[in-house]
Request: fold
Amino acid sequence: MQLNLDDIIEAQKILDQTIQAKHRVDYPQILEELKLALFTELAELANEVRSFKFWSIKPSSDKSVILEEYVDGIHFISSLSIAMGVNTDFFLPDNIPIASKKDLTIIFNKLFSQMNALSDLNGIHDWFREYLILGYQLGFTYADIYQAYFKKNQINFKRQEENY
Reply:
């Protein structure tokens, strides 16, 4: 299936411009911060999914909490893509199955291990693609991701207005 993220990318550009103007920074100055923020959001997502917590019987967080953490990552990988001029048209496999706990742990480890690839165009594109696939493997549809992204985008604008 082909995903067109033009609406998300355009909304992220506007949010980024707002933040950058307010804080007097630009993409070249904040690339490392964006990467670390993405790393942090991926860790927060893994923590909510809990697939690696073999020592705990507590289930994953509510699906809405996981989706909110997931779209936090969409914000930062979108910003990196914009900053580096990465093409954000993606072809994903059809009928992506929901992943098992073990598979999710492997997927998270793969994404963490590929964080160094976020320094080049192909690496960012491939990482973004894998992150989108993860969303489906977590049980989200594109409509879920799209709606949650725009809901969080509004929250992020409000946070800027309130000096978050």
